[in-house]
C-alpha cells in the first residue's frame, strides 16, 4: 500500500515540523515597531499618516465646566470630562479626517458633533459596560484643508443612563495625501523588460464601442477593511478583514467583519471570535456561508503581528442564511471544539463542489509571504468532512501542491461541468477528479507567468452555454514573471507585472491545442475579474508593477510590495474575435488605488461594488494606505430601460421547469431573451471562488409576460446552493433575484469521518502568557 505509506509519512513529517517549530512566532513576514507586543485592543490607534492630540493639548479649547482626570487607562494618562449642559470642546485642524476618543459607561449621555459650523451627528456615549479609549465619532472623507470640530454636551441622556457625562481623551487627525500621477498606469502596458510601450496597433479599442458611458460613483464606507467580500442577499454583502484597528467598533474593540447594506450604505459590525486573516469562504448547498482559516485572538489583547502559534487555527466560521433587510439577528457562529478543519490553513481556496459541500484547497501552516516547503500545506480536505480515499476526515495529500511551490497560495479553482475541479497554481494547472483522487496535469501557463499569490493573477470560468454542450473554458489574466525562489531583497516593487491572459478549452482537443495567449491593454498584478450578466468580464483593480504583500521587497511604497496602480477598468468579451476582445471605451478612471487586499463583485442590481486595498500590517493613512471608501461602477445598461422579473420561485430544482413573471419595456419587445444563472462568488486576494454563469433553457409566452425556464441538469453543471437569476435582452439585464438551486438541503455529513477528525485533532490555543488583562480605571 505505497499510497497509504506515503500519506502516513507525510502526516508524520507535518507533526514533526509542527512540534519542532511550536515555540516560533506564527508570523514570518515584515513587522513594524510595536506590532509584536500584545496590548489592550481598544479602538484608539494612531496609524501612520495621522497625528494624535491628547486631551491636555493647548490646541483643544474647552468652554464651560470641565474636570481633568488621571489614570493609566487613558491616552497619555489624562482625560477631560464634563456633565454640564452646553460645555464644549473646539479644535481646528488641517487634514481629511478626524476621530474623537473618550470613555463610555452607564453615566454618559448625548453629545452633538459639529464640523465647520454644521451639526453632523448626535453621539450617544452611554454603554452598559465601562469602556475606555472608545472611538466616539469619526469622519475620513473631508476635503483637504482647514476644518473645525466642535463637540457639545447636550445635557440629555439615554433612557437607561444615570448621567450626562461627556469625555475627551484624545483626537486623531488624518493628515491626508494625494496619489501622485507618476505612480499610475493609464493606457500603457508594462512590458517584460519594464519599459512603457503603446498597445499593439492590431488592438481595436473601437471594436466594442458602447452606446453610452460607464459611470463611477464613490459612496459609502465599509467601516472595516474589505479583505473578503460576498453578496449574501438582495440587500446586503458581508465584509471580512483581519484583526486590525478598523474604525468600526463592536463590544468595545475594533471590528473585523461587517454587513454592508447595498441599498442604504449602512454598516453593521459583526462579532468574530477568531482572526480571519487571509481566510477563504464559500456558500454550501443549504445557503450557509462558511469562512475558513485564520489565527486566534485572545479576548481584548492582541497585536498586529500576534497571530498565535505555528499551528494556526483550524477555524470554520458559520454564517447562516440571512436574507432579510433587517440583519440585527444575523451573526457568525464559532465553536472550535466541535467545528474545525483537520489542519491549519492560511491563504486557502474554498470551493463548493457538485455535492454541495466545500473543498478546502492548499494554503500555508503559518503566516508570512511566499510559501516554502516548511510551511506548505499540500493537502485538501472537505467540509463537512468526508471519509473518501481512506482519509476518514483527515487531509488528503495533493502532489500538485508540492510541485507548484513556491508561489502557490490561494490557488485558482473552479468546479467543472463534469464534476471535476480545475486548479491553477504558480505556472501550472491541473484537472482534479475528487471522486477518484487523480490529477490530470495540463500544459504549463506560457511565457513563465505565475498566476497565484504572491505573483497574483486572476481567473474566470467562462460562461457555460448549451450552445456548445456546456464545454468549459478557463481564462487566466495578469500575474508576474518574477522568480519565486528569489529572496525579497532581490525583488522590487518596480518589477513589471504581466499583461498576459491565457485561455484554454478543457476538452481533449482543447488541451492538446494548449493555451491561447492574449494581451490586456495594461499589465496587472492583483486584478479582479468580475463576470457580468451579459457574459462579458470586467477586469478592475491591481498594480502595474510589483507583487502581492507588504514589507517584503525593495523600493516599497509605504509598505506596499506593488506600485503603479491601474485605475482604468477594461472589459473583456469572450465571444469576440481574437484581437478585439478588450475595450476600455467609455470607462471612467478612478483616483483610488486598489492594490493588495482589494475586492470587487457584481451586485444584484447589476452594478459592480469596488472596495478595499490595504498593503499594510495594520491600518495606515500614508500611500498606499488602508482604504474604506466604496466605489460603484455602473455599466451603460443601468441607465437603459431594463427587463423586470416581477415574480420568481425561491427554489430551482435540477432539471425542474419553473416560470418567471416578467415585464419588458417597449424598446425591448420582441428582442432575443436569455436567462442566466449566476454565482457571484466569494472574493478575496483576486480569487473569485465559485464565480459562475450558466445559460438556462427558456421560452417566452406569446404575451411576453411569462418565461418558462429549466433548472440546470445537475450539481455538476451548477453546484447546489444559492444563485442569482438575470433576464438579459439585447445585452441589457434585469436586476437579479436570489434562488436556491437544488433541494436546499445541507451537504451530507459523514459522522464517522467527523468523529475521527475531532478525535485526531485539537483546536489551537494561545500561550497562557498572552492571556493577561490590563486593569483600567475610569
Automatic annotation (TrEMBL):
Which positions fall inside the Galactose oxidase-like Early set domain? 642-741
Q: Which superkingdom?
A: Eukaryota
**Could you tell me which residue ranges the Glyoxal oxidase N-terminal domain spans?**
255-637
Specify residue ranges for compositional bias: Basic and acidic residues.
767-778
Signal peptide span per the entry?
Answer: 1-22
Q: Which UniProt keywords apply?
A: Signal
Record InterPro entries: Gal_Oxase/kelch_b-propeller (IPR011043), Gal_Oxidase_central_sf (IPR037293), Glyoxal_oxidase_N (IPR009880), GO-like_E_set (IPR015202), Ig-like_fold (IPR013783), Ig_E-set (IPR014756)
Write out the ranges of the annotated region (Disordered): 756-778
Q: What is this protein called?
A: Copper radical oxidase
Organism of derivation: Hermanssonia centrifuga
Amino acid at each position: 500500500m505505497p499510497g497509504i505509506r506515503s500519506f502516513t509519512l507525510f502526516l508524520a513529517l507535518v507533526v514533526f515540523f509542527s512540534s519542532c517549530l511550536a515555540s516560533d512566532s506564527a508570523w514570518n513576514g515584515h513587522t513594524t515597531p510595536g506590532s509584536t507586543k500584545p496590548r489592550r485592543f481598544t479602538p484608539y490607534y494612531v496609524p501612520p499618516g495621522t497625528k494624535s492630540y491628547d486631551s491636555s493639548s493647548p490646541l483643544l479649547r474647552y468652554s464651560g465646566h470641565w474636570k481633568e482626570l488621571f489614570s493609566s487607562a487613558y491616552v497619555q494618562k489624562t482625560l477631560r470630562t464634563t456633565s454640564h449642559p452646553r460645555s464644549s470642546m473646539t479644535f481646528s485642524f488641517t487634514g481629511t479626517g478626524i476621530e474623537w476618543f473618550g470613555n463610555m459607561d452607564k453615566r454618559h449621555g448625548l453629545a452633538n458633533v459639529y464640523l465647520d459650523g454644521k451639526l453632523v451627528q448626535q453621539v450617544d456615549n452611554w454603554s452598559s459596560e465601562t469602556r475606555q479609549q472608545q472611538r466616539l465619532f469619526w469622519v475620513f472623507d473631508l476635503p483637504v484643508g482647514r476644518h473645525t470640530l466642535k463637540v457639545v454636551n447636550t445635557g440629555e441622556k439615554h433612557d437607561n443612563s444615570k448621567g450626562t457625562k461627556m469625555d475627551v481623551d484624545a483626537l486623531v487627525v488624518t493628515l491626508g495625501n494625494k496619489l501622485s500621477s507618476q505612480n499610475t498606469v493609464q493606457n500603457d502596458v508594462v512590458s517584460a523588460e519594464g519599459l512603457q510601450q503603446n498597445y499593439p496597433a492590431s488592438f481595436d479599442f473601437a471594436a466594442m464601442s458602447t452606446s453610452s458611458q460607464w459611470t463611477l460613483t464613490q459612496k459609502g464606507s465599509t467601516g472595516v477593511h474589505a479583505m473578503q467580500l460576498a453578496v449574501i442577499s438582495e440587500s446586503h454583502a458581508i465584509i471580512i478583514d483581519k484583526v486590525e484597528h478598523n474604525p468600526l467598533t463592536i463590544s468595545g474593540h475594533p471590528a473585523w467583519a461587517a454587513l454592508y447594506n447595498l441599498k442604504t450604505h449602512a454598516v453593521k459590525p459583526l462579532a468574530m471570535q477568531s482572526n480571519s486573516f487571509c481566510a477563504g469562504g464559500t456558500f454550501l448547498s443549504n445557503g450557509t456561508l462558511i469562512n475558513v482559516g485564520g489565527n486566534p485572538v485572545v479576548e481584548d489583547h492582541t497585536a498586529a503581528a500576534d497571530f498565535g502559534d505555528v499551528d494556526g487555527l483550524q477555524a470554520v466560521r458559520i454564517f447562516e442564511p440571512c436574507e432579510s433587510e433587517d440583519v440585527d439577528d444575523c451573526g457568525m457562529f464559532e465553536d472550535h471544539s466541535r467545528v474545525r478543519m483537520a489542519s491549519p490553513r492560511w491563504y486557502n481556496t474554498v470551493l463548493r463542489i457538485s455535492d454541495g459541500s466545500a473543498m478546502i484547497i492548499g494554503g500555508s501552516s503559518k503566516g508570512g509571504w511566499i510559501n516554502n516547503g516548511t510551511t506548505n500545506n499540500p493537502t485538501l480536505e472537505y467540509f463537512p468532512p468526508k471519509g473518501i480515499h481512506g482519509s476518514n476526515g483527515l487531509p488528503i495529500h495533493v502532489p500538485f501542491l508540492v510541485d507548484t511551490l513556491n508561489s502557490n497560495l490561494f490557488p485558482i479553482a473552479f468546479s467543472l461541468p463534469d464534476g471535476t475541479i480545475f486548479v491553477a497554481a504558480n505556472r501550472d494547472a491541473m484537472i482534479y477528479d475528487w471522486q477518484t483522487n487523480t490529477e490530470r496535469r495540463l500544459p504549463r501557463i506560457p511565457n513563465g507567468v505565475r498566476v497565484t499569490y504572491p505573483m497574483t493573477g486572476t481567473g474566470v470560468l467562462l460562461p457555460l452555454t448549451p450552445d456548445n454542450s456546456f464545454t468549459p473554458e478557463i481564462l487566466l489574466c495578469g500575474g508576474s514573471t518574477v522568480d519565486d525562489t528569489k529572496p525579497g531583497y532581490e525583488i522590487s516593487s518596480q518589477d513589471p507585472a504581466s499583461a498576459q491572459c491565457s485561455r484554454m478549452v478543457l476538452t481533449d482537443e482543447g488541451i492538446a491545442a494548449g493555451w491561447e495567449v492574449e494581451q490586456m491593454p495594461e499589465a496587472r498584478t492583483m486584478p479582479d475579474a468580475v463576470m457580468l450578466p451579459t457574459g462579458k468580464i470586467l477586469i478592475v483593480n491591481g498594480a502595474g508593477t510589483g507583487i502581492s504583500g507588504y514589507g517584503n521587497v525593495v523600493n516599497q511604497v509605504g509598505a506596499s510590495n506593488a506600485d503603479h496602480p491601474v485605475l482604468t477598468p477594461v472589459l473583456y468579451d469572450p465571444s469576440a474575435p481574437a484581437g478585439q476582445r478588450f475595450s476600455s471605451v467609455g470607462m471612467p478612471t478612478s483616483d483610488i488605488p486598489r492594490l493588495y487586499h482589494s475586492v470587487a463583485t457584481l451586485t444584484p442590481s447589476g452594478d459592480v461594488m469596488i472596495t478595499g486595498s490595504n498593503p499594510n500590517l495594520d491600518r495606515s493613512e500614508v500611500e498606499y494606505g488602508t482604504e474604506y471608501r466604496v466605489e460603484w461602477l455602473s455599466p451603460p445598461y443601468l441607465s437603459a430601460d431594463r427587463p423586470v422579473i416581477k415574480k420568481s420561485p425561491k427554489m430551482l430544482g435540477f432539471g425542474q421547469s419553473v416560470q418567471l413573471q416578467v415585464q419588458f419595456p417597449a424598446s425591448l419587445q420582441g428582442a432575443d431573451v436569455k436567462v442566466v444563472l449566476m454565482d457571484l462568488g466569494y472574493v478575496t486576494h483576486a480569487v473569485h471562488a465559485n464565480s459562475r454563469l450558466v445559460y438556462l433553457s427558456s421560452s417566452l409566452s406569446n404575451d411576453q409576460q411569462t418565461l418558462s425556464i429549466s433548472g440546470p441538469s445537475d450539481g455538476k453543471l451548477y453546484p447546489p446552493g444559492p444563485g442569482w437569476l438575470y433576464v438579459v435582452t439585447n445585452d441589457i439585464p434585469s436586476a437579479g433575484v436570489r434562488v436556491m438551486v437544488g433541494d436546499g438541503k445541507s451537504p451530507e455529513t459523514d459522522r464517522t469521518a467527523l468523529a475521527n477528525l475531532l478525535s485526531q485533532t485539537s483546536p489551537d490555543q494561545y500561550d497562557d502568557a498572552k492571556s493577561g488583562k490590563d486593569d483600567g480605571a475610569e
